[in-house]
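Reviewer 2 asked us to include a model.

Predict the structure of this chain.
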Amino acid sequence: MEDIGLKVELTALPTAPLVEACQTEKNDNTCDGSLAFGGSEGVGWYQSEQYYTCPGLGVTNLHFSPEECNIYLPLFKAAAAVTGDAQDAALHKLALTLNENLPEIYLWQPNYLHVYSDRLGGGFAIYPNERESFESILDWTYAP
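Predicted model (structure tokens):
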């Protein structure tokens, strides 16, 4: 980002100060950009709905206006009301709406690729939530 002329200041914060600094309704540009992701918990797509609730994460994390609060919940409800091809079409519409409107995408993805060496062992494991795959690193082993 600096190569294209942006001033970059990297700040690592524990969760509580991060939420206070970057994910509150004050929206004072303390965090002009942030890296975050969610919705990859290895469960159903419907788990992503929590990120768009108003009041709730839709307001605190994504700074939704009152109008934006009414965009996503009906699309989640429409997808939940049908099955099969109709649900696929409803989820496609939801995904397109998210892609066109949001800076962060929180729609569950069923097609994750995890590449690792079969020489890893001990406490190493791939979990449905990939962040948990890096727990217990001190227990990992590596075979030659």
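The chain is about 30% helix and 5% strand. The longest helix spans residues 84-101. We have added this to the supplementary material.
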